[in-house]
Write a structure and sequence with these properties.
The structure is a single chain. With 450 residues, this protein is an all-alpha fold. It has helices at residues 16-27, 30-42, 46-74, 78-85, 90-123, 131-143, 146-164, 167-194, 200-207, 216-230, 236-241, 250-279, 289-299, 304-338, 342-362, 378-415, 426-449. Helix content is 76%, strand content 0%. The chain binds 4-fluoro-L-phenylalanine. 4-fluoro-L-phenylalanine binds next to helix 1, helix 2, helix 5, helix 10 and helix 14.
Length: 450
């Protein structure tokens, strides 16, 4: 009865907490630890955080639930899920696979920087609180030719090794240990950073909105960040939901994941921005922000070197639990749809992603003069096209698909396990996914691009 729509051989999560940890593992990653603090720094601090929260409530929760429900109902990857319900919608899933592929190709470059910093923290190369020294260490790394490409390759190899381990074995096991450890570490670092002399300024910068800073760019960036951070809009949660069994409480999981994700992003912001003000870094420094500020915090901590090592190691694990989800979306598609061998597919796609990532890495140094979009090199272009265009577009289409094609009644039936679960927010969710979500995304799109 419970397993009514399942193909018998499809793998499943070992436990409910296993799914929540793995889905949070996908959501919590470089998006929270690396991107959120620098996006907040660049987009007006509190103004960005405020807009982020509004979008999170209106669109983030809504789509999280929508994706998981669609995945469990169809028990298929992103493309198969759309196709099963409406044949000519399969391309929307395809858009998601493309987004995953593109994101991972620059994500893995940043993952490589993290691996390099783990090594630096052991060899002692990071011991300073001087913004100039730390800035140079970062710039030397990212602007060189071979070193970042080498570490990008290592990151991709690690990702594909875990994905080859399968769902139960690799992803679930790793998440169970690493996520709680990461949480504890980041709390300790945030406390140290906030209590630095002058750190209060950073807390204010992050949490007190200056309304004059809110403009369409800030709103589009916040929208993109919500999608990126929650792993939404590319079918990742559809694929993860497809491994769920029929008695899981999806509405509950869909609420927990964004809460965990946002909590970690805020903590990362509270670890980075107070240090920015305490040591005199630039809040608008961009992608290097976490790499230059946190070593300064570690230098002011007892056992700072050990802390730096453990922290960057945990960042690596968080990045890996996200990167595996992106690779999984691509692999699940090819294996499910084209019936290719899983091992071969995983290796081939990983290799392709690595090659795509090489220009992104080079654009931080030797290729910095090449622009693809106005003012943007390869790295920034991949980021912009995925976070600010493909993911929100995928989200918009998912809202339309669930609200208007599949139908709210069907979706709620799946979300409540055929009416056996209480989900009192169902009517509100229906309105959000049918009207509020698509209209909000459309307005931001239209105002930003036209
Ligand atoms: N959510 C991840 C992060 O914040 O690092 C990145 C990500 C993973 C985006 C998976 C999209 C995705 F499908």
């Amino acid at each position: 009865m419970e397993n009514r729509n399942q193909t018998p051989e499809r793998e499943q999560w070992g436990s409910k907490i296993g799914f929540i940890l793995a889905a949070s593992g996908s959501a919590v990653g470089l998006g929270n630890l690396w991107k959120f603090p620098y996006m907040a720094g660049k987009n007006g601090g509190g103004a960005f955080v405020l807009v982020y929260f509004i979008i999170l409530f209106l669109v983030g929760f809504t789509l999280m639930l929508g994706e998981i429900v669609l995945g469990r109902h169809t028990q298929l990857n992103a493309i198969g899920a759309y196709r099963k319900i409406r044949k000519n919608w399969a391309w929307v899933g395809g858009l998601g696979v493309l987004a995953g592929f593109l994101i991972l190709s620059f994500y893995s470059v940043v993952g490589g920087w993290v691996i390099n910093y783990i090594i630096k923290s052991v060899t002692g190369g990071l011991y300073s609180s001087d913004p100039k020294v730390l800035g140079n260490i970062f710039n030397d790394l990212v602007s060189s030719t071979m070193t970042p490409i080498f570490y990008h390759a290592i990151f991709m190899v690690l990702t594909f090794i875990i994905v080859l381990g399968g769902i139960g074995g690799g992803i679930e096991k790793a998440s169970k240990i690493m996520m709680p450890a990461l949480f504890i570490m980041i709390v300790i670092i945030a406390i140290r950073s906030m209590t630095l002399p002058g750190g209060v300024e950073g807390i204010k910068y992050l949490l007190v909105p200056d309304f004059s800073k809110i403009n369409m760019d800030v709103i589009l960036n916040a929208l993109g960040q919500v999608f990126f951070s929650l792993s939404l809009g590319m079918g990742c949660m559809i694929t993860y939901g497809s491994y769920l069994n029929k008695d899981t409480n999806i509405p509950q999981s869909a609420a927990i994941i964004p809460l965990v994700d946002t909590g970690i992003a805020l903590l990362a912001g509270l670890a980075v921005l107070p240090a920015v003000f305490a040591f005199g870094f630039e809040p608008e420094a961009g992608p290097g922000l976490i790499f230059v500020t946190l070593p300064a915090v570690f230098s002011q901590m007892p056992l700072g070197g050990l802390f730096a090592f453990m922290f960057f190691l945990l960042v690596l694990f968080a990045a890996l639990t996200s990167s595996i989800s992106m690779l999984e979306v691509c692999v699940a598609y090819v294996v499910d749809e084209w019936k290719w061998n899983r091992k071969f597919t995983t290796i081939l796609i990983s290799l392709a992603i690595f090659i795509m990532g090489v220009p992104a890495s080079l654009s931080m140094g030797p290729w910095s003069h090449i622009t693809i979009l106005p003012g943007k090199g390869f790295f920034d272009t991949y980021d912009y096209i995925t976070s600010n265009i493909l993911l929100p577009l995928g989200g918009l289409l998912l809202c339309i698909f669930i609200g208007w094609i599949w139908g709210i009644d069907q979706a709620v039936k799946e979300a409540t396990n055929n009416g056996t679960l209480k989900f009192s927010l169902a009517p509100m969710w229906g309105v959000l996914i049918k009207y509020v979500g698509p209209i909000a995304i459309l307005i931001v799109f239209i105002r930003s691009f036209i």
